[in-house]
Specification:
about 325 residues; mainly alpha; two-stranded antiparallel ribbon
């Protein structure tokens, strides 16, 4: 009998996996990021700005996994980022500044929170999923504000950046930049492999036709929950890196506007592309910083810009590039 399943090994899935024609964009992107310290030698401000953009790129990547491939619009994704930051900062507060401990703990914290909240949230769909993820994020926010031992509303400062195997590798801004870049590339490759696998095809199939996937014998809930846990862990890693960048973490990192900002990064970059999420994050962070230098009312300019991009670049910046190159 001929296998008509969309998961058959002979079925091409260029949009989900290793589409070699599209590799040019991420290669140029990562190569450009790699040479930035050479273009701006000794410019700590620019280096810090791009480092922050890459950290948000990791967070946006994680969101793109569930939003672009699972159609899960989460308004609580920033909670994972905040939890990762607090995990690293609290460990530092108690004398554990080793990155090889702090980063895995941050990932595990985000993944565990995603497992517990996702098991409940994923029982719902649509606007109900949006509201329940927002509710869980608010719970995390108010929990953080109540932790008076760790700064409460004022947040928690870190004495220094995490050490790596006892070495103060991350104290140097350039070293930290390349560590963040390396983790960004590693997360991209991991997620690219995941979405190109059988798991990714099932996740995408459930997004397009959940009833058909159930008829084929697959339980979409299990795959969505797994993707949600992976996304939570990766986003928590970005939070630990963000805490190291500014040597500070606060409950404000978990608010719904931050989650909305992550959604904007993914949508403007191009949902379901992964590298589009990175481009969207870098673009938004840089444009925000540029506009803030021009006027204190920069949000009044930034808002219409987002609307214009959404209208004239449907599918995001990546789709716009594809149309421009005839692909």
């Amino acid at each position: 009998m001929t296998d008509v399943s969309p998961l058959a090994s002979s079925t091409p899935a260029p949009a989900l996996g290793w589409d070699w024609k599209r590799l040019a964009i991420p290669l140029v992107l990562f190569a450009g990021l790699a040479v930035m310290p050479l273009i701006f030698p000794g410019d700590r401000y620019t280096l810090s700005l791009i480092t922050r953009a890459m950290i948000f790129g990791i967070a946006a990547l994680s969101l793109d996994l569930i939003l672009g491939y699972g159609a899960l619009i989460s308004f609580g994704h920033a909670a994972f980022m905040g939890l990762g930051g607090y995990a690293a900062a609290i460990l530092m507060f108690h004398g554990t500044g080793e990155a090889l401990v702090a980063f895995p703990v941050a990932i595990a914290t985000g993944a565990l929170f995603a497992l517990v909240t996702g098991a409940i949230s994923l029982k719902t769909r649509g606007v109900y999923f949006i509201m329940i993820t927002l509710a869980f994020a608010q719970m995390a926010f108010f929990t953080a504000t109540s932790l008076s031992a760790y700064g409460g509303d004022d947040g928690l400062r870190m004495a220094q950046r995490n050490v790596v195997a006892g070495a103060r590798l991350l104290q140097n801004d350039t070293n930290f930049y390349f560590v963040v870049l390396g983790l960004l590339i590693a997360c991209y490759l991991l997620l690219r492999t995941i979405v190109g696998s059988r798991f990714g095809r099932i996740l995408k199939g459930a997004k397009e036709n959940e009833r058909r996937m159930r008829a084929l014998g697959f339980d979409p809930f299990r795959y969505r929950l797994t993707a949600y846990v992976i996304a939570g862990g990766i986003c928590a890693l970005s939070g630990a890196l963000f805490a190291n960048l500014g040597l500070f973490v606060a409950p404000a990192y978990m608010t719904w506007p931050r989650s909305g900002e992550l959604i904007a990064m993914v949508v403007l970059g191009g949902t379901g592309t992964l590298h589009g999420a990175i481009i969207g994050a870098i673009g938004i962070i840089i444009v925000e910083e540029w506009l803030a230098e021009i006027t204190q009312h920069w949000k009044a300019i930034f808002g219409p810009l987002v609307v214009l991009v959404a209208i004239f670049a449907r599918g995001g910046i990546i789709r716009l590039i594809d149309r421009g190159t005839g692909r």
